[in-house]
């Protein structure tokens, strides 16, 4: 083997083996506790919304086809004995009859909001359905988090509850809200037959980790039982998302969703209290108001309507890990192939440092590109979301080709002005323009995500998989040689300090328990360090 081939080939094989080993390790399914359900046993109750992709409660005039609800109930009857609905609009007035058909009971939801006419319609039809379907409707849930949303006063809600109780007779009546709002509105307790509380550890003001979610639910339920002695407590919503951004220690993932539900259902059975799991199917429409995480609370997937996990069985957080390996190997071949082709045109052979820099780009970019592609459809909402996230992924791919070419050509990083100033671009070499252009685009990408996570972070994802590769790509040349062009200045300085502030603020704001935020903060600081290296070189020059 020619000596010029020996080092790059060895490094390429090492990188490929590292990527394959990493994803083989990460891709292993996570063991779950024993199933909390006995053989043939079903969940006590599950929240149900009928909307599929393209449907939402905000679509005026939408009526869900009866056949769609019928199909959903046929699936749900296999895993639960009861469904909780939230409204009787858009075709859900047919739900009681369909529930009877499939042997399901119901917690019939009546939606309340700021519109008096809509409320009246919901109440009229809801009370009628409860009266006509006493064998199916085991309780009427009058209002869902209307106090949390500030759309109705507690006194007005109390009057509504009294009126519904008068009309439905012996059918139990309740109101559902986050547990803190029951603590703040204890005057409503006499107006309901039982208290329905929502305990969602992920959404708590102080988020709770998946490992602590079950005990947290149990603790809050006990606290509510002590606050309302003699009143039955129904946990009307409890669950965990399978995808989305971290909140402090609370990480959405398939394994964490399965683990929390295992724990919560087991605790409810052991302690002998009632619980309703949120929710039956993923609801894509919720992503518009709650981000990626909002659309992934379902036990069943939105598209194929299949269960996400089996009780007591291991769950994989990265089901596409084999594809991640394939993508990583292709990325490694791309980086080393481009470097080898470009290096052949150099007068002197590429040195060990050059090949190590290429290996660094291939390792980091190849390890993250596959997962960036996997989460692209999950985290992209609408045209703007696809364009933004697609831009990030394309940059990651570009980094695997552009920076190995730059390094192999003997070129260092060039200041932003080489790509942005037409006069400088016209007299610069192609590798210099490529280095400057990728640096500029990387700074824009990281800066764009940083602005979102600083000023409007609650529902924004951390695009760490897509941005890690490009940050590694712009960083790698700085360890090999200095930038060779003058012209760095205000643009680099402003971007540098903006990224430093974001790199410190985002992890501190999210708390250091949030490893996604810490990872993103590190990317900001590494991008800032790269800009500092460019500035430092120019000042020395």
Describe this structure in words.
- It is a single chain.
- With 541 residues, the chain is an alpha/beta fold.
- The chain has helices spanning 3-26, 66-76, 95-101, 116-132, 154-168, 179-184, 210-227, 254-271, 287-290, 321-343, 352-379, 382-408, 416-420, 422-426, 430-455, 464-475, 490-510, 515-540; strands at residues 46-47, 82-84, 105-110, 137-144, 173-178, 195-198, 233-238, 274-277.
- The chain has an 8-stranded parallel beta sheet with strand order 1-2-3-4-5-6-7-8.
- Helix 1 (3-26) runs antiparallel to helix 10, helix 11 (352-379) runs antiparallel to helix 12 (382-408) and helix 15 runs parallel beside helix 17 (490-510).
- The longest helix is centred in the last third of the chain and has 28 residues, at 352-379.
- It starts with a helix and ends with a helix.
How many H/I helical runs? 18
Biggest sheet: strand arrangement: 1-2-3-4-5-6-7-8
From the N-terminal CA to the C-terminal CA, the straight-line distance is: 41 Å
Question: Which range best describes the helical content: under 10%, 10-25%, 25-40%, 40-55%, 55-70% or over 70%?
Answer: 40-55%
Fraction of residues in β-strands: 5-15%
Biggest β-sheet description: 8 strands, parallel
Shape: elongated
Give the SSE string. HEHEHEHEHEHEHEHEHHHHHHHHHH
């Amino acid at each position: 083997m020619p000596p010029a081939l020996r080092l790059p080939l060895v490094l390429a094989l090492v990188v490929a083996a590292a990527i394959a080993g990493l994803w083989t390790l990460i891709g292993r399914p996570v063991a779950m506790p024993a199933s909390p359900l006995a053989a043939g046993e079903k969940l006590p109750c599950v929240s149900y919304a009928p909307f599929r992709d393209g449907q939402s409660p905000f679509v005026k005039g939408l009526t869900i086809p009866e056949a769609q609800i019928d199909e959903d109930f046929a699936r749900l009857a296999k895993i639960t004995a009861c469904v909780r609905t939230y409204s009787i609009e858009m075709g859900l007035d047919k739900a009681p009859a369909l529930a009877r058909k499939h042997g399901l009971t119901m917690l019939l939801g009546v939606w309340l909001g700021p519109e008096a006419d809509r409320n009246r319609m919901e109440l009229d039809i809801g009370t009628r359905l409860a009266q006509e379907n006493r064998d199916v409707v085991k309780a009427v849930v009058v209002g869902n988090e209307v106090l949390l949303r500030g759309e109705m006063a507690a006194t007005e809600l109390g009057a509504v509850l009294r009126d519904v109780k008068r009309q439905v007779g012996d059918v139990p009546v309740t109101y559902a809200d986050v547990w803190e709002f029951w603590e703040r509105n204890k005057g409503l307790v006499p107006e309901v037959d039982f208290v329905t509380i929502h305990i969602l550890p992920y959404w708590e003001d102080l988020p709770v980790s998946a490992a602590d979610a079950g005990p947290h639910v149990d603790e809050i339920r006990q606290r509510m039982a002590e606050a309302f002695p003699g009143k039955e407590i129904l946990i009307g919503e409890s669950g965990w998302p399978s995808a989305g951004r971290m909140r402090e220690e609370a990480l959405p993932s398939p394994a964490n969703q399965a683990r929390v539900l295992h724990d919560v259902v087991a605790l409810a059975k052991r302690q002998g209290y009632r619980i309703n799991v949120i929710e039956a199917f993923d609801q894509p429409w919720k992503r518009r108001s709650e981000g990626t995480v909002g659309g992934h609370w379902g036990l069943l997937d939105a598209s194929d309507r299949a269960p996400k996990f089996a009780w007591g069985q291991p769950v994989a957080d990265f089901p596409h890990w084999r594809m991640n390996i394939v993508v990583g190997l292709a990325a490694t071949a791309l980086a080393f192939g481009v470097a080898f082709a470009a290096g052949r045109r150099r007068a002197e052979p590429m040195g060990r440092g050059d090949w190590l820099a290429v290996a660094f780009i291939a390792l980091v970019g190849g390890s993250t590109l596959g997962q960036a592609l996997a989460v692209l459809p999950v985290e992209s909402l609408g045209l703007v979301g696809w364009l933004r996230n697609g831009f990030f992924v394309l940059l990651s791919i570009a980094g695997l080709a552009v920076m190995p070419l730059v390094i192999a050509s003997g070129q260092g990083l060039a200041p932003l002005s080489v790509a942005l100033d037409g006069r400088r671009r016209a007299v610069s070499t192609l590798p210099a323009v490529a280095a400057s252009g990728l640096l500029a685009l990387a700074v824009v990408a990281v800066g764009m995500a940083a602005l979102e996570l600083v000023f409007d972070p609650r529902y924004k994802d951390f695009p760490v998989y897509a941005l890690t590769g490009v940050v590694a790509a712009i960083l790698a040349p700085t360890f090999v040689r200095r930038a060779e062009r003058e012209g760095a200045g205000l643009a680099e300085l402003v971007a540098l300090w903006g990224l430093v502030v974001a790199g410190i603020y985002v992890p501190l704001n999210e708390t250091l328990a949030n490893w996604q935020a810490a990872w993103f903060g590190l990317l900001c600081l590494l991008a800032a360090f790269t800009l500092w290296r460019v500035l430092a070189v120019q000042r020395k020059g």
